[in-house]
Structure formats: structure tokens, C-alpha cells
Amino acid sequence: MVKQRKIPMRKDIVLGEMKPKKELVRIVKNKEGEVSIDPTGKKPGRGAYISLEVAVAKKAKEEHTFNKAFGVKVPDEFYDELVAFVDHQAARRELFGDAR
Q1: Containing domain of residue 58, as a range?
Q2: pTM
Q3: Which molecular function terms from Gene Ontology are attached (predicted)?
Q4: Is residue 52 included in any domain, yes or no?
Q5: Considering only CA atoms, which of 12, 2, 92 is closest in space to residue 55?
Q6: Dihedral through CA 17, CA 6, CA 95, CA 62, nearest 10?
Q7: CA distances from 91 to 49, 65, 69, 70, 82 (A)
């Protein structure tokens, strides 16, 4: 009998929904207060998750979600970079399936 593995779940801070960790990307704030995308999920610092959907990334930009989540001023360039990253990841998923 094969044991069913537990799927790690995380909360998308834009939508407020729990989703499997593989469907999300981690955004991290380090000790210096710098906010960056963490595709590996292993960078040190305070993390927050967002869905790998372009519409969600654009909503995060409109609402300045990470300014509120991390308590720092996040530049608009970061949100543009996030939208581009999410768009790229969504395109990869379409091409290659769920394999990361």
C-alpha cells in the first residue's frame, strides 16, 4: 500500500486562498528590507506567497500588496518584474506541464 504524501499548502496573500505550494511563488524581504522574488523558496527572510497568474500579479501591483505585507515601500519596478516573472512561469507551465 502506497502512503499518500501530504501536499504543502500556502496562503496567497492577494486572493486570500490556500493553494498548493507548487502553484505559488515566494516573495521574500531580507534583513536589509530588500524585497525580491524567491523562485527556489529557500532565501532567508520573511516570505509571502502569490499565485502564478498574471492577473493576480497585476492586482498585487494595483493594491501595493507587498508594501502592506512587509511594511516597506516596494518600488513599481519590482511589481513589473514580478508580472514578467509570473507571465514567464505561466508560459513554461503551458509548454512543459507541471514539471518545474
Answers
A1: 9-96
A2: 0.87
A3: DNA binding
A4: yes
A5: 12
A6: 20
A7: 19, 24, 27, 28, 14
